[in-house]
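Data card: per-record layout.
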Amino acid sequence: MGASTDLTQVVAALAHHVPLLAAVGWVVRIPLVSGEEGHEAITRAAWDGLDLTAERRRALLRGVRAPDISVAGLLTSALPFAQRRHALRAWSGTTTADGILEMRGFMTARHLRALALPDGPRRWATFGEVLHCLQDSYSPAHADRDGARIARMKHWGPMDRLRGTRSSGPSSGPGTDEHRFPTDRRDRALRGGILTDEGRAAAAASRRYLELAIRHCATDEREELRRLGLTGFLDETSPTLP
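The structure for this 242-residue chain is written out next.
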């Protein structure tokens, strides 16, 4: 009885904290905790009409959810180096320009990593990680956009305290609007069961990325040509600042 009670308490504690840990991007569905979808709904809208097998779709969903709910994602979510996976600046002092470069570097590395894997679930789950980052960059909790351009990338700052700097909090004026800690209501892709304007923009960009991934998988292009194609896509969806 004591062991069972202890296990129940542990599960309850984890259930209490998981929503906070998985709160640095569009929401994801967490069984027994929350049925609300975000990344999943955006990804389904993106692949609608594309010739993707059920296996590839399952892998994409697993990959797009992983940065928020996998063990590795949960353990590293607050670390500065992991913020690029969520289209966020690493530190409060990191510039938007550097944040965009870090995000683009992450997406490029994971895209090329996916193409280096044999065609199968691992490859498409890795494409899903790229989708996660791309989709987060359209969340109003992560970035202020001016059309395709990211005018300002935001910051999620629990680790700033270790450097003696103030963590992110409620906006108190121009230039202080950051991703709330630990959660941000703007990280909701659905309103009344329908994708928000930002969610639809994320889905449109995700579809273009999936079309690029499908093309790269179907052709035997050299790596430099694949890089050029991905760079062109990134220049359209998240161009670097001058």
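Known properties of this structure: Strands lie at 143-146, 149-153, 190-191, 194-195. The chain has one domain: 2-237.

See the next section for split statistics.
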